[in-house]
Amino acid sequence: MDPKHQRVTLNDGHSIPVLGFGTYAPDEVPKSEAGEAAKIAIDVGFRHIDTAHAYQNEEEVGLAIRSKIADGTVKREDVFCTTKLWCTFFRPELVRKGLEQSLRKLQLDYVDLYLMHYPIAMKPGEEMFPTDEHGKTISDTVDICATWEAMEKCKDAGLAKSIGVSNFNHKQLEKILNKPGLKYKPVCNQVECHPYLNQGKLLEFCKSKGIVLVAYSALGSHREPEWVDQSAPVLLEDPLIGALAKKHQQTPALIALRYQLQRGIVVLAKSFTEKRIKENIQVFEFQLPSEDMKVIDSLNRNFRYVTADFAIGHPNYPFSDEY
Fold first, then answer.
1. Catalytic residue list
2. What sign does the dihedral 232-237-239-245 (CA atoms) show?
3. Ordered alpha helix ranges (H), 117-268
4. Start-to-end CA span in the chain (Å)
5. Tens digit of pLDDT for each residue in 134-192?
6. What is the percentage of the chain residues whose pLDDT exceeds 90?
7. Is-contact 61 106, C-beta < 8 A?
8. Per CATH, is 14-306 categorized as 3.30.1300.10?
9. Rounded-to-integer distance, Cα 207 and Cα 83, Å
């Protein structure tokens, strides 16, 4: 097996490539760039592509996947495609509609993984971030367990091979795991995870429940002013990571990605630059000894780049708990 195509088995029997390509980009980046980058990613060997309704690029990402199937680079079953249910579709009767809308945009018959994007229900409608006259997010009272039951039906219908969650804390995961009549456990929890926020406790919790942790913002963050504090430290400029990069003759990004893989985490690498996309797939070409892993562990400061300010004050805001 080509090391590039390493996969980990999920609790429902399907498997996920351990390295994924993230497609989120700030609004000022043309959506077409996500499509072009996804094509390059598939060409260089990525087989796991991560998108979401909220990224507003499903059409472009779907086009990239289909063009690479059409030109013979891959078959549909070679590509693991993830998308996410946005918070305005959490009412049980809207869940399947949300997924069908994503599938139409992607022009795919199914996704390999469908995630609840946040544990936060918001007012249904056309607006991505519904707000009142004071600019406060309008939430919706939906039990996440009811949303999960509708997710289970999407899996039964064959529209999603696997179902999981994103940005859930351990209490919210437990709520679903302890739900009476649970049919499928979440296969994964996709969360922000990098050396400054290594999610050690959440990782141990997820492992104990057979849930895979998937890391986004694994290289720090895109530093979009709307989402990220501009005074936040730049992860890839950390001197310790720089020293390890020099030692192993790798880029700081590769050190950060390799760190996650060796912890048993599925990691998303996001870049729209061809050179970096090609570099990132080289993460399988070296290993970090345990003493270097410990050095990176020591960088943890529970620092979160993506604080989801739109959801602060919501009863299900996930980041108030320690993990």
1. 55
2. positive
3. 144-156, 170-177, 200-208, 239-248, 252-262
4. 35
5. 889 999 999 999 999 999 999 999 999 999 999 999 999 999 999 999 999 999 999 99
6. 88
7. yes
8. no
9. 23
